[in-house]
Each structure stands twice: as structure tokens, then as C-alpha cells.
Specification:
Elements lengths: L26 H43 L6 H17 L4 H4 L4 H13 L24 H15 L5
Helix pairs in contact: 1-2, 1-5, 2-5, 4-5
Length: 161
């Protein structure tokens, strides 16, 4: 007969299944990883755009400073033309070419006032930009015109765009 009277003693012990592997991850982890990757890419793109805008603004302001430093009273009308060109280039970075490129004279001054000039282009120191580049002799305060241009550029190219 059976030397062992306990039938349960013949049973083998329960073996638990192996622990789940860490690879491949569950679908939820894949979705989370892709979402974080997309978020990081989007934030990186925003940071790059911001740095590009800041670099553009700094280049334009440096050019304005260089124009002011090179100002000669006998070439005041050339200075006016250069400042107007610089303002137009700054405007083209923020507004459609079709809207900005053809502007000159009063229309150009109206545009500048409507986009941050506060009326100081049509009835202030910026008035010289309407036709000063086409005159033989210009009477202007270069510091005042440069300050107005600097303020307008900073308004147009500020980071919160």
C-alpha cells in the first residue's frame, strides 16, 4: 500500500508565473512617450522661433544704431532714406509684403502710426519720412528720429508675438 497516508503530500508546490517583462511597454506608455516627444518638439520649435525673432530685432536695432553713429549733417536726407528703408524692412517681417511694400508718402506714415507710431509719424518727428529722402536739404534731429524708429521697431518686433 501507500506508505504516506497524506495524499496532499504528493502534490507539487504552486509555481507563480514569471514577473512581467519591462519590454515591450504597454500601449499606454507608448502613447505617453509619443505625447511627451511631441510636446518637447513643439516647445523647442517655439523657443527657436522666439530666438529668431529676438535675433532679428537685435540686428535691426544694431543697424539703426550704426546709421545714427554714421550720421553726417550734410547727408541728412540719406539718413532719412536709410531709416525709412530700415522701418520698411522691419514692417515686412511682421506684415504681408502686398500691404507694406508699395507704401510711400502719407500712406507710409499712416501705416507706421496705425501700427505703433501713436500719431508721431504724421504729425511729429517722423513726418520727415514722407518726402525727406527726396529733398536736397533736410532739417531734422537725428536722435529724435532714431528714438521714434527704435520705439516703433521694439513695438513691432516684441517677443510676445
Amino acid at each position: 500500500m501507500n506508505p504516506n497516508p497524506d495524499p496532499l503530500a504528493a502534490l507539487k508546490d504552486i509555481h507563480p508565473p514569471p514577473a512581467p517583462s519591462w519590454w515591450p511597454p504597454a500601449p499606454g506608455w507608448w502613447i505617453l512617450a509619443l505625447s511627451l516627444l511631441a510636446l518637447a518638439g513643439w516647445l523647442g520649435w517655439l523657443l527657436w522661433q522666439r530666438r529668431q525673432r529676438e535675433a532679428r530685432r537685435q540686428r535691426i536695432l544694431a543697424r539703426l544704431d550704426a546709421l545714427l553713429a554714421a550720421y553726417e549733417p550734410g547727408r541728412a536726407c540719406d539718413y532719412v532714406a536709410d531709416v525709412s528703408e530700415l522701418l520698411k524692412r522691419a514692417a515686412l517681417t511682421r506684415h504681408p509684403r502686398e500691404k507694406v511694400a508699395p507704401l510711400s508718402g502719407e500712406a507710409w506714415l499712416r501705416f507706421l502710426d496705425e501700427h505703433g507710431g501713436g500719431g508721431r509719424f504724421r504729425s511729429g518727428p517722423g513726418r520727415i519720412l514722407a518726402d525727406g529722402a527726396y529733398q536736397r536739404h533736410c532739417e531734422l534731429d537725428p536722435e529724435e528720429l532714431a528714438a521714434l524708429a527704435r520705439e516703433w521697431i521694439q513695438t513691432q518686433l516684441k517677443d510676445a508675438s
